[in-house]
Amino acid sequence: MNKRQMVKSLLWLLIGFGATSGFLRLVHGLGATTGLSDATPWGFWIGFDVMAGVALAAGGFTMAAVVYVFGLEQFRPIVRPAVLTAFLGYVIVAIGLMMDLGLPWNIWHPMVFWQYRSVLFEVGTCVTLYLTVLALEVAPIVLEHPLFSHPIFHKAYKILKHLSLPLVILGIMLSTLHQSSLGSLFLIMPFRVHELWYTSNIYILYFISAAGLGCAMVIFESTLTSLIYDHKPRQELMQKLGKIASVILGVYLVFRIGDLLVKGKLGVAFNGTGTSTLFIVEILISTIIPSIFFNWKKINGNTKGLFWTAAMVVFGFIMNRQNIFLTMSKKGPAYFPWVSELMISLALVAGATMVFIFFVEHFDLFGDGAPDNKKEIGEKLITGPFFGADRSFVKGVAIFTAPVIAGVGLALMLLPSSAIKGYQYPNTPVKDAVGWDTLSIDGNRALESVLFPHAQHQQMMGVSRDSCMTCHHMSRPKDGPTSCSECHQDMYLATSIFSHGYHQTLMGGNKSCDSCHVNTKAKAEVLSCNTAECHKLLPSDTTSYLADSYVDAMHKKCKDCHEEQAKQADGFIAMGEQAKADSVKALGYCTACHPGLPPESKVRLSVTR
Amino acid sequence: MIGILTDVTKCIGCHKCVGACVDANKLDKHIPAPQHTSDGLAANRWTSIIKQPDSHYVRKQCRHCLEPACVSACIVGALKKTKSGPVVYDKKKCIGCRYCMMACPYGVPKYEWDTPVPYVRKCTMCYERVSVGKQPACTEACPTGATVFGDRDKLIAEAKLRITKNPEKYINRVFGEVEVGGTSVLYLSDIPLGFLGWKDDLGKEALPKLTWSALSKVPTEFLGMGAAMTGAFWIIGRRNKMRAMKVKEEAEKKAVENETGDAGTEEKGEDSNE
Predict the structure, then answer these.
(1) A458 lies in a domain?
(2) Interface contacts (A, B; CB < 8 Å)
(3) Do A256 and A312 sit in the same domain of this protein?
(4) Confidence label for B34 from pLDDT (cuts 50, 70 and 90)
(5) In what helix (H) or strand (E) does residue A513 lie, and over which residues does it extend?
(6) Which of residues A140 and B271 earns the better pLDDT score?
(7) Lowest mean pLDDT among A188-197, A391-400, A463-472
(8) Same domain assignment for residues A597 and A521
(9) What are A570-600's pLDDT values in tens digits?
(10) Separation CA B6–CA B20 (nearest Å)
(11) Cα–Cα distance list, B157 to A499, B134, B164, B181, B252 (Å)
(12) Which candidate, A604, A598, A601, places its Cα nearest to that of A584?
């Protein structure tokens, strides 16, 4: 196996892993396959695939601007790879977003239901349009291939070539918008985003950083390809690009720090907390160190130095886009991306890399369609070098099937069980047993527990297997236990207190039926309780009067008097009758009626208010 | 404009509102764990009782802001502020981006994480009941009158009356009267209610304005960038042409030796244009 085959095998492995995760994500939903929750609705996919993905794809529009608009012709050879990277980057963004959306099949909705006051609508629209523009910019590379020799393709190619400048400018305009608007997304969360990352000018920061990062990304990726393909790296060009990047990064630094200075929040960056350290590390890695290194002869003079500096910028800004989420305030459990989230993202990158490699091996990616560059490219798309140069298509595919299967296997091994089996509902948590047999159950999970004497219930229900089943229904939906209210309905539900037998005796037995059941043919039809002589004060819509729930009835009936009694405690103290005072005082506590309540609820009902 | 007033001092924490809400909206009675945030709200719990020290019970629900952040964030307009006050959700439009959940200053919208076809769920102030003249299930169920339904202006007046009657009992503030531009669900309280949102003081400004200040510049930015790029292209292109002509002239005047040297200076000149 040579170097390229190794790289490809590794990529196929990642794709196998990620595709499995992606499939399970679509089948089982977000809760089963990701660490996302109500506390963290946006996680790694938005932070990395979308936020960082769009920023990393900025090389496309920066290089296009440098060459087409600013006329720096010497950069032309790296425009094509940069535009292709951008295109693939946006495809990653689109697929990553589809993974993250709860209802991905509705992704077309923003095109129909316009909501122009939403930043996300603006971002979505621009990204869609820009993806189209990028596709048109990439199309000539594809159309140059000998396979597309039909005159129609030739005509399309010519039209696209003519349109290249307007397309580039449109691309720059769209990029400006959504690169900055990705920052604007955070404007509506002034309370959640940490003050070191929140600024009302965040969109300016996002735009400038995208431009700088774009240049660094071009250095990173073209050095990497030249390493894999043993091309001679374009040292001087990269050096120059590094200098351009350092200027943009410098501007970014001035804006970032200046903004904090103006807000008077710069001190927060040095207050020694974990967040401030994160901020300092981010700024150092993403901006300060690289902009020095890009201008330092010792480092920018060699390929390795440039590569690692660019890698630092890339890493620094991925970190920047993640940090805003990491430091966000939240209520609820901490979030850490699951294996499935990480692997889907990695697989998307791997897939994009694979397409990039395919382009390198089959299309004239580093030239400009000039005839002399066309010698090296693989003309046969299927049996060409991509699947192994000298083998047949079948053999080539066979070789790479192994890593894909390995990836699927790894995924099934490493993914959490809920991702594979589907969402698993947790059983009702039972707190530590109090005493021997009394459980403290937080039934409605409102952090208020009630004591449940198990043995007593068992006795009442009769000690047999059937009685266990009354509450421990393992076949209940979602494996839930029978809730207490199923038996203790009077706790919260309104209860019928109409006693038919009592009324019957009172009215004089069977002959009195027709005094209530006027229409004897339809037994169910009865007079309302408040008609005729009976209960004039009852509401008319009740045939049998519904009492308040047990809780209400008791609270309404007893509580007031208890409160009054408790208030007399002070009087008894004044009269020197301490014992009496204590006993009436006890009436004012919830435990007077609820002896089972935990001690912390021993608060007086009345006097506190 | 309708609203709900919750008087924290009157709530006994009986959870009847929660039960009524679950029944009225036919919500699932179980709370799956990942939906369990510290405020007790979940996709199937649209209102919750938060226990606070000293027998204080605070009901949390959607505040139905007058200028809702969620509505402005929604990419397709699935969330809508109705004229009568409730903020309602159209699940047919939703794409599941969850930006509303990120935008809400109170963290109210919750998601159905346990299903492959999830929707955003939150209190609708019982919009269907309210629009036929009934009151929301929660206020109807409240046994102590701690949470009441009515016209928002009248509720504010009532709240202020209660404060003037019992100034030592309440914090002198109707929570939600001006907060984030005002909310339809108001609170009276004797304890601070910062825990309902992200911060104690959420300010008086409506959050959508923060976005709009950036978003309204977008057309200018778009056209400005287009003009700048076209302009730069034209100017630089022209300058390059002129320089090329000059070079040609000079080259014609002098001998044909220095071409490479000129090319070098040309590049430098362009760099400074950046």
Answers:
(1) yes
(2) 250
(3) yes
(4) very low
(5) helix A513-516
(6) A140
(7) A463-472
(8) no
(9) 888 888 888 888 888 878 777 777 765 655 5
(10) 16
(11) 45, 22, 11, 18, 90
(12) A604
pLDDT at A529 (0 to 100): 66
pLDDT of residue A248: 95
Judge whether A577 lies within some domain.
yes
Report CB contact under 8 Å: B34, A447: no
Token code pair at residue A210: 């995208």
Number of domains making up chain A: 4
Helix (H, G, I), strand (E, B) or coil at A284: helix
* Residue A453 parent element (H or E): strand A450-453
A345-362: average pLDDT: 90
Q: Give bridge partners of residue A430 from the DSSP assignment.
A: A441
- Tell me what pLDDT residue B143 has: 79
Type of residue found at B93: K
Q: Which of B14, B17, B23, B30 to mutate to test the interface with A (most CBs of A within 10 A)?
A: B30
Q: What is the pLDDT of residue A549?
A: 55
Give the domains, in start order, of chain B with CATH numbers. 2-207 (3.30.70.20), 218-271 (no CATH)
HSE of A402, CA atoms in CB hemisphere, 13 A: 9
Within-domain flag for A421: no
Q: Has residue B54 got a pLDDT over 60? A: yes
User: Which pLDDT score, from 0 to 100, does residue A545 have?
Assistant: 42
Out of B31, B211, B226, name the one closest to residue A169 (CB).
B226
d(CA A344, CA A17): 8
Q: Would you say residue A409 lies in a domain?
A: no
A466 and A540 within one domain: no
pLDDT digits (tens, 9 = 90+) for A68-88: 888 888 888 888 889 999 999
A118 contacts B75? CB cut-off 8 A: yes
Q: How far is B251 from chain A (nearest CA, A)?
A: 22
Q: Which pLDDT value is given to residue A550?
A: 57
H/E run at residue B73: helix B69-73
Task: Report the alpha-carbon distance of residue A535 to residue A529 in Å, rounded.
Answer: 6
Chain A residues whose CB is inside 8 A of the B271 CB are: 72, 240
Give me the amino acid identity at A406.
A
Q: What are phi and psi of B87, to 5 degrees?
A: -95, 120
Evaluate whether B104 touches B22 at the Cβ level (below 8 Å): no
Q: In which domain, by residue range, is A455 found?
A: 430-485
- What angle do the packed helices A235-263 and A202-228 form, to 10 degrees? 160
Tell me the shortest Cα–Cα distance from A462 to chain B, in angstroms: 28
Length reported for chain B: 274
**Spatial distance between the Cα atoms of B264 and A591, rounded to a whole number of angstroms:** 92
Cβ–Cβ < 8 Å for A317, A52 = yes
Please calculate the CA angle A162-A164-A167 and round it to the nearest 5 degrees: 125
d(CA B234, CA A394): 53
Given a contact cutoff of 8 angstroms between Cβ atoms, the answer to whether A48 and A345 are in contact is: yes
Burial class of A578 by CB neighbour count within 10 A (0 to 12, 13 to 18, 19+): exposed
Q: Within an 8 Å CB–CB cutoff, is residue B267 touching chain A?
A: yes
- Please, what is the Cα angle at B189 between B184 and B191, to 5 degrees? 130
